[in-house]
Amino acid sequence: MTLLITVFAAVISTVLWYRRKNDDMRLGTLCFLFWGASLMWLVDAIFEYAELKEAYFTPALEDLINDSFLGLSVVALALVIWLVRLLISDPKGSVRSALTKQLSGQ
Amino acid sequence: MACFLVSAAEAVIVKSAEKVAEKKEVQSEGKSGHAAATKLPFSVKLRWLSRLLVGGAILLAFEHVWHGEVVPWFPFLTAMADPGDAAEMFHEMATVGVAMAVLVTVVWIGMCIVADKIVARASHGQEVEA
């Protein structure tokens, strides 16, 4: 489930990156985060499948819920990393202008 | 258990290689006077690989924290406390961890080949239009 959620996040972020008009939102960061993790979890899934065989596709409900919760938490973490990177690099200068406005207001 | 460490180690090596390649490209640009616009610089391609590896390693590290396999105190990996668990961890790093790093690298090689073809097609199109 974690793999599935991450793959969906990777696909959505890649579509958004492809449709972007400029690089203001730094969507590439999100794509690399999600695709990197998806590829690694894919390997994890292959090894797990080799061990569990068909039981891999019928997980216990508790495991399924835990994995879904983990997947959503991973997406949240990736979004926070992306947002922090975006605000620090500030490609549109929004943070800089907001800070300058506060300075001139004092 | 600690499979993400293999990718993290590869990311460090790739990042160093990227810096070296970047320096060399700047030097060669300085000598020739202009950059080769028809080919993607190798440092850019290496940056893709390092970002894939770092991105994956960060999110996988979080998963390991989630499962209690990584802790914020020494020795940071719970498997290190027991020799049996440590051996199992090293085995997992050698199998799953290496496979992860290999798959990411293979996908990156594919990305580079496709990107080079797209750039060549675009520059060929520009030549035809001119």
Average pLDDT across residues of chain B?
88
- State Rg of chain B: 20 Å
Helix content percent band of chain B: over 70%
How many domains, in number, for the residues of chain A? 1
Describe the biggest sheet of chain A? none
Outline type of chain B = elongated
Spatial extent as radius of gyration of chain A: 19 Å
Reported for the largest beta sheet of chain B, the result is: none
Number of helices of chain B: 3
Q: How far apart lie the N and C ends of chain B?
A: 57 Å
Strand percentage of chain A lies at under 5%
Number of strands of chain A: 0
Mean pLDDT of chain A: 92
Topology:
The complex is a heterodimer of chains A (106) and B (130).
Chain A: H1 2-18, H2 27-52, H3 61-89, H4 94-105
Helix pairs in contact in A: 1-2, 1-3, 2-3
Chain B: H1 4-32, H2 42-66, H3 83-129
Structure write-up:
- The complex is a heterodimer of chains A (106) and B (130).
- In chain A, 79% of the residues lie in helices and 0% in strands.
- Chain A contains four helices and no strands.
- Chain A has helices at residues 2-18, 27-52, 61-89, 94-105.
- The radius of gyration of chain A is 19 Å and the shape is elongated.
- In chain B, 78% of the residues lie in helices and 0% in strands.
- In chain B, helix 1 runs antiparallel to helix 2.
- The N and C termini of chain B lie far apart (57 Å).
- The mean pLDDT of chain B is 88.
- At the A-B interface, helix 2 and helix 3 of A face helix 2 and helix 3 of B.
